[in-house]
Design a protein that fits this description.
The chain is an alpha+beta fold and about 170 residues long. Helices cover about 25% and strands about 45% of the residues. The longest helix is centred in the middle third of the chain and has 13 residues.
Length: about 170
């Protein structure tokens, strides 16, 4: 294992009709495509920090009859750093973002937010398992498979939670 400082870039796009997240790490030893278990919990953007690389491998895939080879880094851990603005006061940050979100009112006709949350409650219990009922801070269980973690992240966004990438915790917006 090796720990390197660098920048992680995360991007979402459509591939063959599916939403796909891709990421790459730029650091002092090179540029790598990234394999990381919690990639789906990160939002699009750039993340500076220290990255624990467990393994560097050669990956390949074919597309339209051609083979593409790339260097991949398998990450174990990420420790984010924010040199210009630290996230020491997370609740105030969450409040500021919530004000921006509530400015556009796009609720379905005939339904308010409370009825939407009540209708999906039984599914949420199955989706979140031992984390249900959700608290103001939610740390997802990483032992679940990627599709379940992806579904949990999408549901948390719908419920008004915001993700703090530095702590890997979801906070309920107030």
């Amino acid at each position: 294992m090796i720990i390197v400082p660098g920048t992680l870039f995360v991007d979402s796009h459509q591939r063959e009709g599916k939403a796909v997240k891709s990421s790459w790490l730029e650091c002092s030893i090179g540029r790598f495509n990234v394999k990381y278990l919690h990639l789906n919990s990160l939002q699009d953007g750039q993340y500076k920090g220290f990255f624990t690389i467990a393994q560097i491998i050669q990956g390949c895939y074919d597309y339209n009859g051609k083979y593409y080879f790339e260097v991949e880094a398998i990450l174990n851990e990420i420790a984010f750093t924010y040199p210009t603005n630290s996230l020491t006061d997370v609740p105030s940050l969450v409040k500021e973002k919530r004000v921006e979100k509530t400015s556009d009112n796009k609720e379905p006709l005939g339904k308010n937010k409370n009825t939407l949350l009540e209708e999906d409650a039984p599914d949420d219990e199955d989706l979140f398992g031992s984390l249900w009922p959700l608290k103001d801070q939610v740390k997802l269980d990483t032992t679940y498979d990627r599709s379940r973690i992806r579904a949990q992240c999408e549901r948390l966004k719908q419920l008004g939670y915001l993700h703090n990438a530095e702590e890997q915790v979801w906070y309920k917006a107030v």
